[in-house]
Automatic annotation (TrEMBL):
Family: Belongs to the ZIP transporter (TC 2.A.5) family.
Transmembrane segments: 6-23, 35-59, 71-91, 111-135, 141-164, 176-195, 201-222, 234-253
Compartments, as annotated in UniProt: Cell membrane
Pfam family, one: Zip
UniProt membrane topology term: Multi-pass membrane protein
Name this polypeptide is given: Protein gufA
Record GO terms (molecular function): zinc ion transmembrane transporter activity
The keyword DNA-binding appears for this protein: no
Length: 254
């Protein structure tokens, strides 16, 4: 239950991030890419400091020194990346927009691909929170949930701005952005149930969630922040997000 509540709250911050659209506020592309870079930095730090490192420690306590903890991390990370890659290939993103009048269909399809990419990667974020709370490490789980919640703010705004830019109304842009956050509690519930089946599954769940998030960072978020030529600001945002998440993890877990 705690995992579901925590992942629901982090997902709800997607709604908060999209809210400025209803007020008529549309950030510049440069500012938006900077925020998305920040989100990538938070996710990158969370993947390592809140998921991979604790997984290695737990596996080390269970299996002792040797190759097994490292092997679990390698296999689990790759499995997480493969799973999200499969979702990205199998879900029919472009089928959601048909018969549109106005902006060209190719541009609309691209926006919807990004919308569903955000929705898809909200699932592993929620799963990461669920697994962390399922582990019983409350301080570490809170740091992770706080970091993911913070990076959901610019993601919600990015989805809403993307839809607004190709002709959708403010209300519809906000609504779709808000709905992408619903994938997070689903992932949280799945992660919480998974790690409670057996303690032996805990390190696997942590590194699987990390692999899923790392795939999204490289495949979706960073390319999105660089495609309009704002790579310097996006990189600065990534560095700030990374060190902020590192600080939160050290401060709240210590």
């Amino acid at each position: 239950m705690t995992a579901l509540i925590a992942s629901t709250l982090t997902g709800a911050l997607t709604v908060v991030g999209a809210f400025p659209i209803l007020l008529g506020t549309k950030p510049s592309e440069r500012f938006n890419d900077t925020l998305l870079g920040f989100a990538a930095g938070v996710m990158l730090a969370a993947s390592f400091f809140s998921l991979i490192v604790p997984a290695l420690a737990i596996a080390g306590e269970t299996y002792g020194e040797g190759p097994i903890p490292g092997a679990i991390a390698v296999i689990g990370i790759l499995l997480g990346a493969i799973a999200i890659s499969a979702l990205d290939r199998l879900i029919p993103h472009k089928h959601f927009v048909t018969g549109h009048e106005g902006p060209d269909s190719a541009k609309i399809a691209g926006v919807w691909l990004f919308v569903f990419a955000i929705a898809i990667h909200n699932f592993p974020e929620g799963m990461a929170v669920g697994v962390a709370y399922g582990s019983g490490e409350t301080e570490s789980a809170f740091a992770l949930a706080l970091g993911i919640g913070l990076q959901n703010l610019p993601e919600g705004l990015a989805v809403a701005v993307g839809l607004l830019s190709v002709g959708y109304s403010k209300l519809k842009s906000f609504t779709v952005a808000a709905l992408t956050g619903l994938f997070e509690p689903v992932g949280g519930l799945f992660g919480g149930i998974f790690v409670n089946i057996s303690a032996l599954l805990l390190p696997w769940g942590l590194v699987f969630a990390a692999g899923a998030m790392l795939f999204v960072i490289s495949h979706e978020i960073i390319p999105e922040t660089h495609r309009r030529g704002h790579h310097q600001r996006a990189t600065a945002g990534l560095m700030i997000g990374l060190v902020l998440m590192l600080f939160l993890d050290v401060w709240l877990v210590a």
